């Protein structure tokens, strides 16, 4: 298994080396183009310029190879093929890439793998290292959502609160908004913010209906607990019944002890 500290160190080193090479190659190309006219040596710049272009093409090809190696990682993770995904990701991270995007995606896949393996601390560290770099907004939002969930699983409520605040200030697509609502409800029961969990109940129910069945059921179970804690017994019963129609109670309560209390009640 690839140690997280090693992966992060290599990631930062590779980004620095690739940035240096890009600047050096582009600077050399510019010097070749303007050096001839300035020095009066027309035509002599063709050979070094061709060499620079060849080096750029070769390194670009290696970069694309690294991206292709890592491309199958998410599907392997989703299928539970963690060992095979680990091998693909490790190979991608070991392969030099001239462009930042391949390394950023490789790190994101490694964080995704550690999250799926329930190695919350390692997933959080990888996400933090990734968020420290400038990346595409969609990748940054996905990483932030994953980091928030990992922090909640570790019960790092201060870190999760800060991450949720960052997410709330961003423009999210529908998938990200659904994930955010789930995280907010998960955070809410951990801190006992029962009233806030029920705020905008109608909109939250509509959002939950767009989620996968287990997530939808869990969201409504969270709100049922909040209703129970605030003395709204009829609402709690209604929400619990809706949740039970969508998923089995054991799936809903997995790793969520507060929800076991809800389904243990005999109404």
What does this structure look like?
This protein has 267 residues and is an all-alpha fold. The chain folds into 2 domains: 1-133, no CATH class; 173-267. It is built from 15 helices and no strands. The chain has helices at 4-39, 46-71, 73-78, 82-94, 100-116, 120-131, 137-153, 157-168, 174-191, 194-198, 201-208, 213-229, 233-246, 249-253, 257-264. Helix 2 (46-71) packs parallel to helix 5, helix 4 (82-94) runs antiparallel to helix 5 and helix 6 (120-131) runs antiparallel to helix 7. The longest helix has 36 residues, at 4-39. It is elongated. It starts with a helix and ends with a helix. The model has no long low-confidence stretch (mean pLDDT 87).
User: From the structure provided, what is the oligomeric state, counting identical versus distinct chains?
Assistant: single chain
The helix-strand sequence is HHHHHHHHHHHHHHH
Radius of gyration, taken over Cα atoms and rounded to an integer in Å: 25 Å
Distance between the termini: 48 Å
* Main sheet record: none
Poorly predicted spans: none
Task: Map the helices and strands.
Blueprint: H1 4-39, H2 46-71, H3 73-78, H4 82-94, H5 100-116, H6 120-131, H7 137-153, H8 157-168, H9 174-191, H10 194-198, H11 201-208, H12 213-229, H13 233-246, H14 249-253, H15 257-264
Helix pairs in contact: 1-2, 1-5, 2-4, 2-5, 4-5, 5-6, 5-7, 6-7, 7-8, 7-9, 8-9, 9-12, 11-12, 12-13, 12-15
């Amino acid at each position: 298994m690839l140690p997280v500290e090693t992966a992060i160190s290599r990631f930062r080193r590779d980004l620095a080396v690739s940035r240096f090479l890009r600047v050096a190659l582009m600077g050399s190309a510019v010097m070749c183009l303007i050096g001839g006219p300035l020095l009066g040596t027309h035509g002599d710049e063709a050979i070094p310029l061709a060499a620079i272009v060849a080096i750029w093409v070769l390194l670009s090809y290696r970069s694309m190879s690294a991206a292709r190696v890592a491309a199958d990682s998410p599907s392997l993770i989703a299928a539970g093929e963690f060992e095979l995904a680990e091998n693909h990701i490790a190979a991608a991270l070991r392969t030099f890439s001239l462009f930042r995007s391949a390394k950023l995606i490789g790190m994101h896949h490694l964080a995704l793998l550690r999250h799926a393996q329930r190695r919350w601390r390692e997933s959080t560290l990888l996400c933090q290292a990734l968020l420290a770099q400038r990346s595409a907004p969609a990748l940054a939002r996905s990483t932030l959502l994953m980091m928030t969930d990992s922090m909640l699983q570790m019960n790092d409520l201060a870190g999760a609160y800060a991450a949720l605040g960052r997410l709330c200030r961003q423009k999210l697509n529908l998938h990200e908004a659904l994930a955010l609502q789930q995280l907010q409800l998960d955070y809410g029961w951990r801190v006992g913010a029962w009233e806030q969990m029920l705020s905008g109940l109608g909109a939250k129910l509509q959002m939950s209906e767009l989620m996968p069945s287990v997530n939808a059921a869990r969201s409504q179970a969270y709100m049922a607990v909040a209703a129970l804690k605030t003395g709204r017994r009829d609402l709690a019963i209604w929400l619990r019944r809706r949740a039970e129609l969508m998923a089995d109670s054991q799936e809903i309560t997995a790793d969520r002890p507060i929800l076991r209390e809800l389904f243990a009640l005999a109404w």
